[in-house]
């Protein structure tokens, strides 16, 4: 079975590399073949029963059923895309059966490999068209026949094979493969040792190493959970060893790893979906994401630093040979440079990703420390395929959800209700959008949470006056932050398993540590200069005041600068942060004044203590 999974996984990766470099198939064919691969991997890697002699046969039946659904699309492709009329030409009995099987297979794979949350949400949306006529208000929808829903979901590129799955079948696939190959070369050694050299020698070194290493690792992974299990396995034990409490060590790693999804150039899978929904080139999205990502990690680094000063945490005892590390691994930066060059030179995202993979394999052969033989390459492709299976299945479910929203007109009605509920007030709209993003992200993959918002919340925010990229980035950002927001903080739970700490305590500590990040989307919503939009002067002073605001917020939350702050001093610091993070002519001066008051008070107290 292991060999079968490996063979299918390698086949999936080779298919995507070939289509990335030499041109993809027609949309429906590309997406359906991609779906076949990810569903088969899902059914083989996550069996229905953990034990039992009938398990394999049960899963084989699922796989054969999926084969029939995809094979029909290929055999009848010309008729489906050119001759039949969607929602007009009646479905045959066979097409009805295959449509039901396809929907059921995606749901079952979602339940197995993603979890119950997305399964239940998708199922609710699939049932909605038949319940909608019984509801009132914005939830009311016109009666829908089951044959129409089956037609819409199966035979075309609007349902299962919609935009989210399309992005997974092209851009996301090659970038996941790229990250897997880069990790196989041992680039994590370079990332870890560079992080040691940057931050390991200062107070609280291991915690700062976690922040720096996770930010660097995020440039190639784009996954919060992957960051935790990769960097957390060595940073969390180090943090515990020098005095950090287990739940605090786990929380630091969780927040640091979550930032991987907003760290250019890879970012998270949802960023590719954002490009498809908004029509904004991915190379532009990378640029827009630079400052928010730096603000995120600046706030986290400052939090760790102040906590280390307060608790008098010593530096790291480990002193790696950075020059040896650079000699052995620095050449693996070349694939990232090639990737960025191709992206900003106007080449397609999937071609840039495909060339990045090829470059990584070639460059890895330059040193024995990174050299990949055939078996290591196959292992990297297998790991990439397994990671892609989860993303692909989640995107298929998200496609069905978006299909229902479009098919029933629910998105437009929710948008109208959103506007009516907020009265067109941008502040209320942003607040409601934040709550919805976090709620959807509770136990649901970031991509799926973002896709639902792109179909419902984003249009409303644009109507309220936000630029399209600002509205999309706002929802994307909070979908990522849901990973550290209790009650279901996925990355915090993964980190707590490594730290051996309480899940609940780790989750709430992560929420507190990352609190500054929750203000960043509001900052660029009110001032797009943080996304590098506007004049040079606007961008400059907005970035400066935003960084000062983040620092003030961290001081207020931590309650420490040089010595502990009193409660009223913390309130002043938080007030200064709010004024500075949303700068205008009326808020900059009060913000700077409040900040200076805190610094003067702290400096005098520190001086008197000596």
UniProtKB/TrEMBL annotation:
The chain crosses the membrane at residues 7-27, 33-49, 56-75, 87-107, 114-132, 152-178, 248-273, 285-304, 325-343, 387-407, 427-452, 464-495, 515-537, 544-565, 571-601. Keywords: Membrane, Transmembrane, Transmembrane helix. Residues 102-538 form the TRAP C4-dicarboxylate transport system permease DctM subunit domain. It comes from the Bacteria. PANTHER family: BLL3936 PROTEIN. This is TRAP transporter permease. It comes from candidate division WOR-3 bacterium.
């Amino acid at each position: 079975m292991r060999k079968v999974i490996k063979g299918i996984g390698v086949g999936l990766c080779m298919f995507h590399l070939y289509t990335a470099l030499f041109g993809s198939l027609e949309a429906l064919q590309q997406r359906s073949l991609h779906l076949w691969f990810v569903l088969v991997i899902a059914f083989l890697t996550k069996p229905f029963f953990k034990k039992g002699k009938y398990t394999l046969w049960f899963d084989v039946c699922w796989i054969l059923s999926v084969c029939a659904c995809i094979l029909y699309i290929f055999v009848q492709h010309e008729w489906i895309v050119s001759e039949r009329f969607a929602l007009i030409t009646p479905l045959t009995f066979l097409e009805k059966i295959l449509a039901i099987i396809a929907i059921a297979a995606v749901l079952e794979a979602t339940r197995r490999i993603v979890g119950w949350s997305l399964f239940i949400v998708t199922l609710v949306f699939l049932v909605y068209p038949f319940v909608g006529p019984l509801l009132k208000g914005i939830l009311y929808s016109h009666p829908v026949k089951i044959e129409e829903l089956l037609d819409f979901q199966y035979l075309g590129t609007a349902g299962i094979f919609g935009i989210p799955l399309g992005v997974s079948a092209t851009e996301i696939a090659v970038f996941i493969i790229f990250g897997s190959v880069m990790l196989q070369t041992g680039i994590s050694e370079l990332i870890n040792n560079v992080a040691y050299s940057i931050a390991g020698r200062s107070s609280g070194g291991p915690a700062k190493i976690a922040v720096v290493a996770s930010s660097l690792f995020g440039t190639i992974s784009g996954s919060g959970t992957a960051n935790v299990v990769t960097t957390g396995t060595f940073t969390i034990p180090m943090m515990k060893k020098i005095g950090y409490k287990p739940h605090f060590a786990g929380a630091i790693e969780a927040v640091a790893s979550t930032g991987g999804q907003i760290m250019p150039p890879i970012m998270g899978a949802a960023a590719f979906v954002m490009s498809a929904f908004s029509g904004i080139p991915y190379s532009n999205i990378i640029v827009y994401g630079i400052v928010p990502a730096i603000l995120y990690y600046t706030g986290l680094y400052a939090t760790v630093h102040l906590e280390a000063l307060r608790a008098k945490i010593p530096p790291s005892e480990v002193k790696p040979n950075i020059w040896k590390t650079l000699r052995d691994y620095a050449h693996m930066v070349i694939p990232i440079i090639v990737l960025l060059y191709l992206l900003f030179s106007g080449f397609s995202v999937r071609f840039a990703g495909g060339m990045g993979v090829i470059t990584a394999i070639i460059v890895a052969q330059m040193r024995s420390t990174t050299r990949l033989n055939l078996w290591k390459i196959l292992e990297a492709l297998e790991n990439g395929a397994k990671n892609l299976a989860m993303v692909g299945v989640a995107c298929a479910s998200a496609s069905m959800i978006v299909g229902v929203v479009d098919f029933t007109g629910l998105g437009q009605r929710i948008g109208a209700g959103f506007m009516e509920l907020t009265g067109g007030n941008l502040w209320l709209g942003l607040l409601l959008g934040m709550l919805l993003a976090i709620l959807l992200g509770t136990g649901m993959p970031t991509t799926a949470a973002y896709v639902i918002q792109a179909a419902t919340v984003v249009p409303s925010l644009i109507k309220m006056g936000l630029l399209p990229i600002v509205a999309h980035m706002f929802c994307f950002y909070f979908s990522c932050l849901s990973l550290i927001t209790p009650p279901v903080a996925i990355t915090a739970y993964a980190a707590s398993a490594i730290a051996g700490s309480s899940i609940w305590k780790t989750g709430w500590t992560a929420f507190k540590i990352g609190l500054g990040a929750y203000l960043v989307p509001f900052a660029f919503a009110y001032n797009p200069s943080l996304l590098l939009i506007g004049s040079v002067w606007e961008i400059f002073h907005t970035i400066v005041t935003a960084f000062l605001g983040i620092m003030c917020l961290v001081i207020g939350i931590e309650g420490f600068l040089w010595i502990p702050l009193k409660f009223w001093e913390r309130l002043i610091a938080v007030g200064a942060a709010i004024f500075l993070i949303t700068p205008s002519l009326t808020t900059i001066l009060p913000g700077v004044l409040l900040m200076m008051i805190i610094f003067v008070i702290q400096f005098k107290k520190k001086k008197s203590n000596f």
